[in-house]
Amino acid sequence: MKNLPDIAEILRNTFYTLISQFVDFVPRVIGCLVILGIGYLVARGVKILVSQILSRVGFDRIGDRLNEIGIIKQLKTEISLSDIVAKIFYYYILLIFLTFAADTLGVDTITNMVLSLVNFIPKLIAGAVMLQIGIMLSDAIKTAVIALCKSFNIASAKLIGYIAFVFFLIITFLTALRQIGIETDMLESSFILIIGGAVAAFAIGYGIASRDVLANIISSFYSRKNYHEGQLIEIDDVKGVIAKIDNTSVTIVNDTTTTIIPLQLFQTKRVVIFN
C-alpha cells in the first residue's frame, strides 16, 4: 500500500509560502502608496502652476474665440483652455507616477496597461489641438462663404455657410481620430457617400430653385460693361436714370417711379440708351 501524503506538512508549507509572499508584498504596497501620494502632490502642484501661468499670458483668449462659435454656444458650455491644459498635465503626471507604482508592485499586466495610457495621451493631445484648429478654421470658412453668398445676393447664404462649416468640421474630426490612432476607413467611406449624395441633391434642388438668381448673376458679368450709374435708358417701357447696379438687378429712377429690373432682362429685352 502506497504511503499517503503528509497533509500537515503540505498545509505547513503552504502557510509558510503565503506568509513569505505577504511579508514580501506588504513593503511593495506601502512603496506603491507612497509613490502615488507623491505623484498626487506633484501633479496637483503642476496643475495649479500651469493654470496660473497660462491665464496670465492670455492663453484663454483662444478659448474665448471658440466660445463665440455657434456650435459651441448651442452646447451651452464654456471652454477654458488654461484649465483644460492644466488638467491634461495633472492626469499625465499621475499616470507617470502610476507607472512607477505599478512597477513597484511587480505586476506586469498593470504596468503595461498604464504604459499604454501614458503613450496614448500625447496622441490624444495632438488630436485635440487639431480638432480645435479645425473648428476655428471651419468657422472662418463659414463666415467667408456667407459673406461671399451675400455679396452675390444668393438666397440661403447662411444655410450654405453652415453646410460648408459641417463639411470641414467632419473632415477635421476624422483627421483627429486618425491622429489618435483610430481606424477611420469605414467612416471616411460612409462620409464620402453621404456627402456626395447630399451635395448632389442640394445642388440640383438649389439650382432649380435659384435659377433666376444665378441667371441674374451671370448676366451681371455681361451687363456691367454696357451700363453704368447715371445713364438714361429705356427698357420694357420703363424710362429713367440708372441709380444703382448690383449683382442681380438695376434700379431705374424717373420723376414718378423707382423700378427695380432683374439683370437677366437686359439680355432678352430691347434696351435704348439715350446720349
From TrEMBL:
Matching PANTHER family: SMALL-CONDUCTANCE MECHANOSENSITIVE CHANNEL (PTHR30221:SF1)
InterPro entries: MSC_TM_helix, MscS_archaea/bacteria_type
Domain of life: Bacteria
Protein name: Mechanosensitive ion channel protein MscS
GO terms for MF: mechanosensitive monoatomic ion channel activity
Keywords: Membrane, Transmembrane, Transmembrane helix
Transmembrane segments: 25-43, 89-107, 113-138, 159-177, 189-209
